[in-house]
Design brief:
The complex is a heterodimer. Chain A is about 75% helix and about 0% strand. Chain A is mostly helical. Chain A starts with a helix and ends in a 6-residue tail after the last helix. By secondary structure, chain B is mostly helical. The N and C termini of chain B lie far apart (about 75 Å). Classes of the chains: A mainly alpha, B mainly alpha.
């Protein structure tokens, strides 16, 4: 009798533990299949489009701290010069990320993704404003310094993010076999020396 | 009520068949061979027991008790499958844990079987005795797996999570079912219906979890696991050395 009661209590405890886990109260990570944006970044890696890294690059707090100490002004100018070069490289990489996303979009359209004149016009104006802003920011940083630059980098990142989200939403409608085929075509294009970049 | 229980039995056999055919079609049997073996054995047992009961065959009781015994032992395959997939990115850890686990389970079951024989039980009581303790060991093992995954932040994919959750609930509910049956607190037919419905829900969960191949993602960081593995390896090496040294002393002098 006692054995059965103990068995009943233990059974109920185990049922409760597993149900707690289902309700997410036990803190074990349960990973669903990758989200469309995660699937997109697997296919089209975006090296420069990390918001956290860009914020740190354009953050003037280190520079201001160094300039506030008379003995560290030289170090402050060196820091600003180094970060300026890094920012220019970052701008170039963001431009490449945007270009890669546009190329991927062309592949998607060739695969049968729907498009119309209005969407194409919108994307064209978006691309023109992105590149114009990027070159203007590069010019400003090169000639006026990194910390004199307006915070246009957030607008650039937002452009890249908007395009990624649009492409990811198209990816979400593809079947697993279409995704596999797209991945093969995209990877073959990426490796081809004559690929239009 | 009996027709309802039989109909639920048919539904569970249909779901088991669907899942088995799906595992074979999608070649998931390659990735989850132990679970597929368990499901195959359970399917054969369910079919044989349903046919024997429906046609009133005299061998029904033998089919039932032998089938229960086989499924209890086969359940350990499911635990092994889950552990295999949890530690798949860590070959060295898996190579150390698998033999230890086999030794522990084999030893535990052999001890249980011997204790049962010494108590001179009839077949039905013997199977019930083994089933209760076997399911309890399985429930403890599965809870430990969840605790280890939590402690080392090992992410679980949809397949492994479904197996773990489904089998964990199945084992726990079986324990509750046995206890309530033995205590006589509820009507046996109503208890059988509730148990069958819960089993059908678990089969549906497995169908969802195994509908496509979704392995465990690679864990981003595993320094704590590797640190503890190194400690365990060092402790085992030390024990092994001491045992060998003792043997040499005994044999040498």
């Amino acid at each position: 009798m006692l054995e059965l009661v103990v068995l009943l209590i233990l059974g109920l405890v185990f049922v409760a533990l597993f149900l707690f886990w289902v309700l997410g109260l036990w803190g074990v990570e349960f990973e669903f299949p990758p989200s469309p944006v995660a699937r997109l970044t697997e296919l089209v890696p975006l090296a420069a489009a990390s918001h956290t890294r860009a914020e740190r690059l354009f953050d003037a707090r280190d520079y201001r701290f160094l300039t506030s100490h008379p003995g560290l002004r030289k170090a402050a100018h060196q820091l600003e010069r180094d970060r300026r070069q890094t920012a220019l490289v970052w701008l170039k990489l963001v431009g490449e990320d945007f270009g890669r996303l546009q190329q991927f979009r062309r592949t998607l359209v060739a695969f049968g993704a729907k498009t119309d004149l209005r969407t194409e016009w919108r994307l064209l104006t978006h691309a023109v404003s992105f590149h114009a802003l990027r070159h203007l920011l590069a010019f400003w940083i090169r000639f006026f310094g990194l910390y004199a630059a307006p915070r246009a980098h957030t607008a650039l990142l937002a452009s890249v993010r908007r395009l990624s989200t649009n492409l990811a939403s198209v990816l979400a409608h593809l079947s697993p076999s279409q995704l596999r085929e797209l991945k093969q075509t995209w990877q073959a294009q990426a490796l081809s020396p004559s690929s239009d970049r | 009520m009996i027709p309802l229980i039989l109909s639920l039995g048919v539904l569970s056999i249909v779901l088991e068949t669907l899942l088995l055919v799906h595992l074979v079609r999608l070649r998931l049997v390659r990735h989850y061979p132990y679970f597929s073996t368990y499901l195959g054995l359970v399917w054969l047992y369910s079919l044989a027991a349903w046919i024997a009961y429906h046609f009133g065959l005299p061998s029904y009781l033998w089919v039932y008790w032998i089938g229960e015994l086989v499924t209890v032992f086969a359940g350990f395959f499911v635990v092994a499958e889950i552990l295999r997939h949890l530690f798949r990115p860590f070959d060295s850890v898996r190579r150390l844990l698998e033999p230890l686990l086999l030794l522990a389970i084999g030893g535990g079951l052999a001890l249980l079987a011997l204790l049962g024989i010494t108590q001179n039980l009839q077949l039905d009581h013997y199977v019930l005795y083994l089933e209760r303790w076997g399911r309890l060991i399985q429930a403890c093992l599965l809870t430990s797996v969840v605790a280890v995954a939590r402690y080392y932040s090992l992410p679980l994919g949809r397949n492994t999570s479904g197996l773990l959750l489904g089998y964990g609930l199945h084992v726990s509910l079986t324990l509750v079912h046995f206890a309530l049956q033995g205590l006589g607190l509820l009507d046996l037919n109503q208890l059988a219906i509730v148990y069958q419905i819960s089993y059908i829900a678990i089969l549906a969960l497995w169908c969802w979890a195994l509908w496509s191949y979704a392995p465990n993602p690679h864990p981003p960081r595993a320094e704590y696991l590797m640190r503890d593995y190194a400690r365990l390896q060092a402790a085992l090496a030390s024990i092994s050395w001491q045992v060998r040294a003792s043997f040499r002393r005994v044999l040498g002098g």
